[in-house]
Fold these 4 entries.
Entry 1:
Amino acid sequence: DSPEIITKKVKGLLNKLTLEKFESLSGKILEYANQSTEETDGTTLQLVIQLLFEKATDEPNFSNLYAQLAHRMLQRIDPEVRDENLRTRDGKVVAGGALFRKYLLTRCQSEYVKGWKVSMPENSGAEQLMSDEYYEAMKIKRRGLGLVKFIGELFKLDMLTEKIMHECVRQLLSNMSEPEEEEAESMSKLLTTVGSKLDRPEARHFMDVYFGRIRELSQSDKLSSRIRFMLVDLLELRSNGWHNRREQTGPKTIAQIH
């Protein structure tokens, strides 16, 4: 199939993906990814990962579902899918699950490094709120927050390492003198997602340092009250042993709703 057809078909499947339909639809998406067995450079697999990534970052409330899909693909990708441009240290071609993980990690890193800081239009009047510039700015911000949430969900499924999580948190907390709203909000989203898994005895010292900084930021007059309240919620979440009193939004089965 051509890239255009695969894009259309996989987007359609991702749009229909729910917990109830997970088994059947994830299998169909995997079939498209496995068309890369006919290639030597993993082009189709990279395309499917790109589409999955775009969907996951665009819909943060469902990032857990898309992380589960990525995990399923990692487990079941055809071992014959390979990229002859990528080699292990001993010269073997990277293939199968190792290739999927490599592509996914590369995508995460490139999007994260690219960043998502965006200047919201100054004038917040009704006319400005309806402008294309405003909608584009909101879209970039939403995808940035979606990216952080998706990275966190991938970590919870052991698809990204603890080292990567600590690097992300440290980077987002590095600017204490001139804190950025986007960084503070992203860090809050990330630690809300992964904090309970990161906060183990071996890493307690690092977490204590992070939360000392978070406490300081929660009292900073350089951040909006919305962000400061968000940081206070995060401090409370840790002090409550990472038990969130608010019900988490995310995918539910029909049985769970009724």
Entry 2:
Amino acid sequence: MPTIADIAHALETWAPPGSAQSYDNVGLQVGDAHRPVDVALIALDLTPAVIDEAIERGATLIITHHPLIFRPLRRLTAGDGPGSLALRLAEADIALYAAHTNLDAAPGGVSFALAERLGLTEVRFLDPLPEQLYKLVTFVPADHLDAVRNALAEAGAGRIGDYEACAFAHPGTGYFRPGPGASPFTRTAPGELAETSEVRLEVEVSRWDLERVRQALLMAHPYEEVAYDVYPVLQPHTRAGLGAIGTLADAEPVAAFLQRVAERLKAGSLRYAGAPDALVRTVAVCGGSGSDLIRHALQAGADAYVTADVTYHRFFEVLDPDGIPRMALIDAGHYETEAVTEQLLLHHLRERFPGVRWHRTTTRTSPMRTYVPTPTDAARRPG
């Protein structure tokens, strides 16, 4: 039977916690990581109804997208917001794990699931994460090259796009003079200048994997003092980013696309700026709050951008100098654009842990509802 730690490892291999936004709080929030799991519940948010459902199903683990605990709790008492829910979990002996903005940034993550729900193909990151890559360079005796290279790959180095274990090696010559207390691998006498054949080995490493890869290098390398360099790499990350962009099979008017969004996301209403007769083929999406990516969607040539939590003044950003929308900007709702996360997690975890009874919550966790007024008799009368 897998433990919570096993399940966390599977999630974090896909969505590393280090890729989460700085304000976020992801990972195990309540519970013992070593506890076995036979029944688990998946939900977008943790609510009292979700806890009730977990208790009824006999679940020992709840996995949510949104963390319960964003900030340190001052107390754990009944009737005290997040603290009261954490207390209920502890009393029921149910663990809570959250995969939030790290899952947003993962390949095949939240925005990719949203894009798939809307029928997009050729989906890719809208905004690959910048300044998150490093190049690690070390110098290895030729007969230890494979061992070191494999150790670095196992630790997460050399992942580029859909490829893993990527590396570059080039032969050269290393020089060193051991000091009195040194014990060199080459058995060179102290004070004697050594000349030895080495291979320069280069690998690309994500920021969040760097320390683990560095430790793997030190463990696998035969030298007493391991020479290595770490350089920042400026190109965008190929395996982490925010938002997604893809294309529809056929272009359709904005009005038809709005209907598609409303139906496929089960949205009771949509807020949007856009010309109803404009055609939509290239579509950008971001599950949840994605206003910061409006500029990226425009620069990518999107005909429409679907996200949530768009404030009034941000709608003006899609207008040209004549006030005509350059792109349809559609606010479909936070819950509506992220509800796909539940099925996304369910599918990912069922594949990897078939022995666990996984359940998707039957609770609509959003407290928000849409009110559509009925026209009054006075409003129906002409004049």
Entry 3:
Amino acid sequence: MGNLQPSSEGAVNVYKVIAGSFKSKENAANRVSFLQSKGIEAFVQPVTIMNERMYRVQAGAFTTKENADKRLEQVIHSGVADAFIVSENTPVGHTPIQEPIMGGIMLSSEQLDLFVKDINPQAMEIGSYYISFGNFYGIRGDIAFAQAILETDYFRFTGIVQPHQNNFSGLGSTGPDDPGAFFQTPSEGVLAHMQHLFAYATNSPLPSQYSLVDPRFHLVKRGSARAWVDLNGKWAVPGHNYGQTILNIYQRMLNRMSSGKK
């Protein structure tokens, strides 16, 4: 990320490199796989254009046009000749209290990992799982990562849940006698986290591409928490201000991005 380029008071321009928009989610996923095979980080972000659901492939977000141009050149050189840049005016310094659980992201996997390593240099790098699984389920993976930071104390695991459990969201953890769920890999642990958020955020059927690994999915009252603050008293008990604390961490992540810190 480069230096912050404010466009107006309390806002910053974010330049996103778009490597295609598709009506088919499968076609968008194929484009992501192609870019990743070329060493370019990318993910699918659902968007609505002219009242039509589209699947946009994003290959980076930057606070300077110069850095976005460099990524655009890399994407075009890989063979995606119709890639382009969009500029979005993003508020900083304030996170609305009713932020929905589902939606698009503002931060890349690299930014997630860099943020947590400011506090815990030994933290595992799992930001890519939060972005990829989050985008698959339509969950805001960057905010889910903030929730994982809260649950694990910046992946230091100073509470009941321990690192070998790969449980980054405290699923099933109720006390010393019940440390919660165990997952075989970090990827599976993040997948379970996303599936549990999906259960809370929507009544839609769980997409079948990935097996259900969340052991508590069917214990959730479907659609009962559309916003992060709706998790208060549900994900954590009593959980007063649980969602607000997640959003506060997320705000610090956005502030880091806006400061241009690398």
Entry 4:
Amino acid sequence: MGARELNGWDSAAPAPAVLRAGAILQALAEAGGRPLSVADLAKAAGGIPRSSTVNVCAALVSTGLVRAATGGFVLGPGLVGLSQAYLDALDPVREFATRTRRMTPIDETLQLGTLEDGDVVYLAIHGGRQPLRITSRVGSRISATCTALGKAMLAGHTDERIRELLTERQPFPAYTARSITGIDALIEAVGETRERGYAVDDQETTDGITCLAVAVPGLPEATQPFAVSTSLLTGHATRERVETLVGLIRDLVSGMGHA
């Protein structure tokens, strides 16, 4: 394919069958492992005709992306290889894995995330010696508005850009009584993040848990942002421990953006 063809992809008409396949995969992902019947899939995927749903599922089953199960269909093992290939292609993910393997073990868990459509998407997790029971897992997503990872990455945007991205999503999800739910409060919190050089989630996602995050520096302009965070019990978040963990994360992310 020539450069002209590559540059003109945005003018192409999306193939309906591929769009339907994507909608079906998304519906199965949101089902959380529960088999969906053809009728349920057709409805969950946006009202696709049942005959088309059957045909698309047959194609997805043949490629291993979907698996037939009792009661309908579920995601297939073929997605694992695709997911890993996507992660392997991201330099920060490779660097995070390499650097966390070499570092001295710590009690806290470290997490690498990126920003996508106003959400934090978790890309890699390195378990500590005493990991907390956190809900994040690779591939999961959560609103960027109340997470340290999200605020660390949003700090790389101007306030105007943050308003463009998130104003229409108000009120933001409230996971605890401390969660930020409005754009003005978010802008203020992001400003504080820029000033101190790292982001803090003070029980905004989970009661009793404090999170700290630092954005990956040195990324090429206009590329997706990345950040690394850690979580600890709020009662253990002393000034000394916070300074130590922030320093550790800064050392970890240094060079990840241009490795």
